[in-house]
Amino acid sequence: MPNGDRRGAVTGLGGPPLTLIGMIMEIATGHCYGCGCPFTFCPDCVVTIAVDPMANRAPDVDAEGRTQPPDPAAVARSVQRPVCPECVERANERRAPGETIEPESDRHARHVGVYGTSGGVGLTNAVIEQLAEDAETGYDVARFRPRRG
């Protein structure tokens, strides 16, 4: 399964990914290639599989499910299909240690929480949590800089 940028490459149910909370996170909805169930996912993190749309299977799998050398034409026309976390977990149970597929949740944890910068400071989940805690406990107004003008 490829591990590149999947933004816009994953086909889903209803159009482009949705932007939530002021462009903090995108989510998409699609059907799992493995089980067919609909699920929501982060387009940047979802586990995908390349599928030849003409054969509805991976380009390196024959009609009986056996591995074969991939057909270059099938590879060229392949599209990325999302795989749900449950199917990834089932696939990992059959794989040897060290050959498992990294779950979407682990991939997602690496990129969520970096929301840009403010005054040169990276806005991470930790910074946002600290700002929320400060707001809940109350601000010391004397610490604020007076506005010009």
- Count of the domains: 2
CA-based gyration radius: 21 Å
The major beta sheet can be summarized as:
3 strands, antiparallel
H/E element sequence: EEEEHEHHEEH
Oligomer: single chain
Determine the fraction of residues in helical runs and give it as a percent range. Answer: 10-25%
The secondary structure category is alpha+beta
Going across the biggest sheet, name each strand in turn. Answer: 1-2-3
Supply the number of helical segments: 4
Strand coverage percent: 15-25%
Q: Terminal Cα separation, in Å?
A: 58 Å
Coarse morphology: elongated
Q: Give me the count of strands.
A: 7
What low-confidence regions span 5 or more consecutive residues with pLDDT below 50?
A: 1-14, 17-23
Could you tell me the mean pLDDT?
77
Explain what you see.
The protein has two domains: 1-112, no CATH class; 113-149, no CATH class. Helices cover 24% and strands 19% of the residues. The protein is built from four helices and seven strands. With 149 residues, the protein is an alpha+beta fold. The longest helix has 13 residues, at 125-137. Mean pLDDT is 77; it is low at 1-14 and 17-23. 17% of the residues are buried. The strands form three sheets. The protein has a three-stranded antiparallel sheet with strand order 1-2-3, with no helix packed on it. It has a two-stranded antiparallel ribbon with strand order 4-5. The protein has a two-stranded antiparallel ribbon with strand order 6-7.
